[in-house]
Structure to design on (104 residues):
């Protein structure tokens, strides 16, 4: 499936990712170094924060309490905020568009 990634400088790129990876892994594997993902996907660092295009938000799995708590620590949280490591990338998400959140 395809993932559309908007970098912090506004540049948008469509990349191909394997279903079964997390959205964080797809972004990172495609060279977006600004998505630090320091904890490697353990839901403990919040450096994989992305804003999901509003038309997709409702189609994603609900967030866990841990994800919600971590996002609370960000100054840039909004209604479309998610941690990319907590979104499994699936065929149903083909065309998903996410914007890498500003650095905290
Ligand atoms: Fe650390 Fe997602 S990579 S919370």
């Amino acid at each position: 499936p395809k993932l559309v990634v908007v970098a912090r400088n506004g540049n948008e790129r469509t990349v191909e990712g394997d279903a079964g990876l997390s959205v964080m892994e797809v972004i990172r594997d495609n060279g977006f170094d600004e998505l630090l993902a320091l904890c490697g996907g353990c839901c403990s660092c919040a450096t994989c924060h992305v804003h999901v295009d509003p038309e997709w938000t409702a189609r994603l799995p609900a967030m866990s309490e841990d994800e919600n708590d971590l996002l609370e620590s960000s100054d840039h949280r909004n209604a479309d905020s998610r941690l990319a490591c907590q979104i499994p990338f699936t065929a149903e998400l083909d065309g998903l568009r996410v914007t890498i959140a500003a650095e905290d």
